Amino acid sequence: MLFVPVFEDDDRLEDVPELDAATSGDIGRARDSGEFRGKLYEYFIARVTTGAYQAARVALVGAGRRSDADPERLRRIAAACGYTARLRSISSAALLVRNGCDPIKTAEFGADGMSYAEFDSGTYKTGDREAGRFPDRVVIVAPGADEAALNDAVFRGRTIGECANRARGLANEPANVLTPREFASRVAAMSVPVGLSVEILDEDRIRELGMGLLLGVSQGSAEPARLVVIRHDPPDAPETPVLGLIGKGVTFDTGGVSIKPADGMERMKDDMAGGAAVAAALRALAILKAPRRVIGIIPMVENAVGGRATRPGDVLTSASGTTVEVINTDAEGRLILADALWYAQELGATHLVDVATLTGACMVALGRSASGLFGSPDSWAETVRAAGHRGGDRLWTLPLHEEYRDMLRSEIADIINSAGRWAGASTAAMFLREFVKGRPWAHLDIAGTAWAEDRRAYQSKGATGVAVRTLTELGLTPTL
Ligand code: BES
Ligand code: MN
Ligand code: ZN
């Protein structure tokens, strides 16, 4: 089946002139009658009746307005093609890169998007899978494009799509399976074979390093904490810059003693999606041979309720020495990230990006359509935003006003961990900033984007793999 994206406006398919004839005029009739208008993700399938095409059938896929065709949109169109192929158990699929789209970038998004549809979320289903069969063969067709550049682009898209699927797989895993220890060993298993080095710090080591915030979150759980360090150290890379990627790895967030309401709490198994994105991006960077040093740090804990759990009002001491009064045990992500940010800097990271399902407030502000982006200096936040845009993750900049810092004042310690409702995403980011010492830092709040509540043409329900593309693009950016 040949997939042909068709734009909504005045797309007359000039670059595939024989297509109408090859379908005995079916396509022209569907266009003229309004049966197929090119509305986003709409599709129309016609049989190829002549020998003009290798394909037996053609699927026109609505691509919406041409002016809206940004990287995210192109990737989603390809994913919608992939899901269509899969639901129909098509064994061989081809995706046409249309004239007028940058052939190399579009081929990358095509391979990425098609790969995205390969992901199977039914891990624990014992009966038949309903989701069809992903094609054995997928071809990206870009007439006239440079072949070597095209092959590179397809390899890159395929790699990123596969890595995003790994992040989705990890985030979908239930918390009884994916404990901190299991998370750590799965990260090692996906990293070591591609040449990354992995170090897993156990609780004794974490205690030696003085990470009182990380241990304070973990202490209510029967499952011991882990801190995973992943290194991409190409032999010919310069000493600096060293990109430090830090991902929240809460394998389940009950809220702790400040317990969450029961409704929807099952979703909190994905509170390690930021950590999964970091591991997946490092894998992609290793496979794509990024010519710079990158360190990934993932603090892994379960935020549980129990007799040993941290209480509201407890004071914890971070590895950096800053003391924190825990007002709300449900504001746990910033605690573990604070110690991880400190450690990234100890290990020599010069440029920092953390990724976390950090606040419901970010979801209130932006919904599910964009991740919140914070950072300083502005130029670094802009570098990260641009990488997100190129990769096809939408990031929206939110403020870090100095007033938010005042809201973190504690009577008995250096700072509190929760400043309440107002500007909740910004005060959380401000808390993290306290642990960054004089180097570029950005924070992505993916609470609204890590999980898809409904199935869409381009996305199954569940983990989305958000931020993998942003981090991979950033790692591949020639100058930071
Ligand atoms: N993991 C949650 C944030 C979250 C909420 C992610 C909903 C995805 C969906 C985080 O640990 C949390 O509980 N944050 C609190 C912070 C508050 C206590 C200051 C929140 O957002 O309510
Ligand atoms: Mn929480
Ligand atoms: Zn959380």
Mean pLDDT: 97
Largest sheet: 9 strands, mixed
Count of discrete alpha- or pi-helical segments spanning 4 or more residues? 15
Helical residues, percent: 25-40%
- What is the CATH architecture descriptor of the largest domain? 3-Layer(aba) Sandwich
The CATH topology of the largest domain turns out to be Aminopeptidase
Bound molecules: ligand BES, manganese (II) ion, zinc ion
CATH class of the largest domain: Alpha Beta
Unreliable stretches: none
- Evaluate the radius of gyration: 23 Å
User: CATH homologous superfamily of the largest domain, by name?
Assistant: Zn peptidases
Estimated share of beta-strand residues: 15-25%
Q: How many domains, in number, for the residues? A: 2
Distance between the termini: 42 Å
Task: Tell me, briefly, the overall form.
Answer: elongated
> Would you report the number of β strands?
19
Give a brief description.
By secondary structure, this protein is an alpha/beta fold.
List strands and helices in order, with pairings.
Elements: E1 2-6, H1 19-22, H2 26-33, E2 43-47, E3 57-62, H3 71-87, E4 92-96, H4 103-116, E5 137-141, H5 147-172, H6 180-191, E6 197-201, H7 203-208, H8 212-218, E7 226-232, E8 242-247, E9 249-253, H9 273-287, E10 293-303, E11 315-317, E12 323-325, H10 333-346, E13 351-356, H11 360-366, E14 371-376, H12 378-391, E15 395-397, H13 402-406, E16 415-416, H14 424-433, E17 441-445, E18 451-452, E19 462-463, H15 468-476
Parallel strand pairs: 1-3, 1-4, 4-5, 8-10, 8-13, 9-10, 12-16, 13-17, 14-15
Antiparallel strand pairs: 2-3, 6-7, 7-10, 11-12, 14-17, 18-19
Helix pairs in contact: 3-4, 4-5, 5-9, 8-10, 9-15, 10-14, 12-15
